[in-house]
User: Fold these one by one.
Assistant:
Number 1:
Amino acid sequence: MDVTNVMAHVASSVDVTNILVEVAPRFEGYVYPNEASPEPLWGILIVIYPYITGLVAGAFIMASLVRVFRVQALEPVYRLSLLTALSFMLCATMPLLLHLGHPERCYEIMMTPHLTSPMAIFGFVYAWYLMAVLLLELWFDYRQDFVEWSQTEPGFRGMLYRALMLGVTDESEAAVKLDMKLGWIISIIGIPSAFLLHGYVGFIFGSIKANPWWGNVLMPIIFILSAMVSGIALCVLNYMVLTWVRRKKIDMRCLDMMAMFLFYALVIDAAVEGLDWIHRIYSAEEDFSVIRYVATEKLFYTLNIGQALMGTVLPLLMLGLNQVVRKRLSDMARKRMYFASALMIVLGVFAMRWNVVIGGQLFSKSLRGFMSYKMQFIGMEGWLLGLVVLSIPFIILTVMIKLFLSERLPTAGHTPHPTPPSN
Amino acid sequence: MRLFNMPPQIVRLCLVTIGIVGSYLVARAVLTPPSFREYGFFRGDALKDIMALPPQYGGKVSCDECHSDQFTKLNKGGHKRLSCEVCHGPGYAHTQSPDAGMHKPTFTVCSKCHEANPSRPKTHKQIVLKEHYAGGKCMECHVPHSPAEVP
């Protein structure tokens, strides 16, 4: 690739990209004037948006393994997975609202719905998933407990549980059976809904046909699979951290089962992402030289080291080893390997989102030039705000665990759905 | 609560759903601007709001009233397709009151169009400013109102 001079008029628009040093935007080759901005239009906040949405979908699918597919070993993490999904769901639109810069206008997307705008439709996909799937499933699962807790808990907690009861105090066997049946139905509806939610995020990128890095029919599928992987990995981490905080013993049967599903999901995800690359490399379309340069130079660390090695190969080896020689490994060794794998996967999927969002903005539409991105520290697209946005779901989850997964509060004891619904 | 012999959970959820959908419809009726869709998928009154804003630009013809010599010169030269306000900045206030000053162009105005940029057509005159003249005073050698003229 022919590297020509830095365009002087663009170099003059030096932007403060860090609190300490000024870094001039750098361009290589031929870049159109509209692409020669100091930083890409979509920064870290747009990276976080599909990341959080993916964690929601993945955590929900983790929960549905218990309810729909009746994997009873995973029961200890059923509610934790659902609460994880809800905590992240409540923050899913936050990076978008912050990125757009006028969060007070958020309601307008719903007031004047535009049926041909992908982002406007996302408002309805989001609302459906939050209101009709997540909250309903949680309500049916918790209803009996709300009735109990509202009678025993004083003060604010009692009021909260009474409000969440919605005035239904029926605890008869038939009513609880109905709760479980309806929860099961919603969970079944929830699986395609979770696929729709995150597949839709993939579609938003995949439908940008002008950009060869994004415009790809496999994009929604890759997004869904990586979402499942990241969601399950997050549940593994949450479960291990929660039991450590509570000084409880980890249910190894449950953890082994989670690791098994994590491994299978990762195998499928790695296979489909590999297929995508094989297709790109073999077909080698006119944009391939640019894509190759982006993959091997511009995104070397985040794609090859972060996404491929740390996020895929090492966890595959570790989790795969556990599948083969699980019985020979001690509980402590397995726990350490699961924790390390889950952590690497969570970081690797974040790198994947980074590669998709930022990678697509690092080369010119002319296919003959490259832009660069230096992330700010402070500011709306700075990594400080990114960290804050990413930490908010964990704060919400902590509050939810205190309120709805407290050790102090006795649960009704019914399993999500151990037997097929007979009513 | 027994309504039509339905289980109480279903009745409550139906009521909550009706409440949410009803609130949405009420909110939509209240919060959607009345002029929405008047001309298209936007608030019709937005056009009136924009029209009510004070004008910023006076337009090229208004300059002719007082600066006809420069105006005539400009219209004969290579910059004839440019409006005065491209270099001098918005001047509506100046057209209303000559006391309101105008922006005095510096080399940055020239470099906006003439700094070398590979995306510009070859026929367009371009220089690398730092190599061409580091002094930054273009008008020592060039006459912007008549680029072909030598001062």
Note: The interface with chain B takes residues 4, 7-9, 30-33, 107-108, 110-112, 114, 131, 136, 139-140, 143, 166-168, 170, 175, 178-179, 182 of chain A (CB under 8 Å).
Number 2:
Amino acid sequence: MIILTVRTFSLLSFEYATEGIRSMITAQIEVSGLAKRLGSVEAVRDVSFVAAPGRVTGLLGPNGAGKSTTMRMLLGLTRPDAGTALVGGRRYRDLADPTGTVGAVLDLAGAHPAMTARGHLRSYCALGAHHVERVEQVAELTGISEYLDRRVGSYSTGMRQRLALATALLGDPRVLVLDEPSNGLDPAGIVWLRTFLRGFAANGGTVLLSSHVLTELQHGIDDLVLIDRGRTTWTGPLAEFTERGTSLEAAFLDLTSAATASVISDTEGIRA
Amino acid sequence: MIRLLRGEFTKLLATRLPLWTLVSAALCGGGLTGLLALIGPENATPPLPGLDTPEGVGIVVGMSGLLLFVPALIGTIAVTGEYRHRTIGTTFLTVPKRGRVLAAKLVVFGALGAVYGLVSSLFAGLAVVAGAAARGSELGVPLGDLAALLARLALAAAVYMVLGVAIGALARNQLLAVGIVLGYFYFLEHVLMIVPGVNVIHPFLPGGATAALTDFTFLSDAIAEQLPIAAASTTTPLVGALVLLGYAALAAWLAIAIPLRRDLR
């Protein structure tokens, strides 16, 4: 009996210790020289950036700039033709506990319409070897607790986004990668998401999110990665970007597709 | 691997697929066999051997082998559903070693196929016994022989579901995969059966192997009677079983190996 008690105690203290260490583990995203050809299109030519722990990094670019392809290469869903994409110094597929390290919300992330949200979350909880209690916890975090037993087919787009985020959080990851996460969210949902991501980063988490909507990122990010026609055209703190004297919108248009040849050479100058 | 099996099993139970599997197994097993047994094979046009002969029982029970495309389709639809509903991305994010995901799916659906086969055979057995009793005729084979035949049909159902899963994993597009399954089992294999010269390979095609496994030569004999060609031969049940398992192994290997390098867009 006494032995049993001691064991329980040591187990608890061990868990506490690992929890303590865990909250200090941070992982940086490092993308370097990524390139990918999809059929005849050079979707990504040369994308390089770093997303640091404790910061929210926004990947901004017009439609077709290569944001989603970059994210898929980062997550091991698509093989790069050249370059590397690492999380905490490793390729995604080499991570010991992938969903315990990175949580991802992609436009690929669907759900079977005949499943309840609980069934969906339980399935991925089992597949990722996470504790089944996480199902209730992530539902609480993303505000879908009340709808857990409804079939996903009856969910609105906004609810699906929340379910996708809940799925990404099952492994209690230190890194979040989100592709256009605001799609389908109402204004209150967007504010909620922004607050959530800020809190996640404030706790030492790394957040990388993409958007083609400039104003969406304006208030929610620390660092900006501009990407256009498969190339990174600007990286750095958002504050530096807006300090360039022009409005964010004008700078964005300067640096993306609307740019003339002279502006592009100007851009190269800024990057250098 | 255990957690992957648990994960895939949890996923399967979260859908209505197990229910539909049981319902279709009962209908396919009991329905067709029951109908034939009640009508009586001797009343068919042309008349077939009655239920009081071993041949009659073989034909009535073996007919349900023609419905083996059903377990194949269940496997196909389940796997392509992951692509259709875009859950495959989340699945591969959770388990980046894709070969393991497919291996787990093949095991889980092999088990579901066995359940399908057992339920289908149970209902087919009950239907043929009840049909013979209702018509007041003796069953042409001992119950032990009937059970052995039904067990072989159950094995075939499990193999077909694995084949269906593999075809689905390779084709990915649900419509395309369903088209391949139906087109092959309903059309291509029957065409191959009647082409002189080509039909010597029939015993080694999935349908021919199934016919050998279940001693069901009714179709090939009927075709041979109508056409001036030699009947497509069949091998022994054991060779049939080995050929079928070989197809399942080949399909499983392809389904595990090929998706590894494919890009998910």
Note: Chain B has eleven helices and no strands.
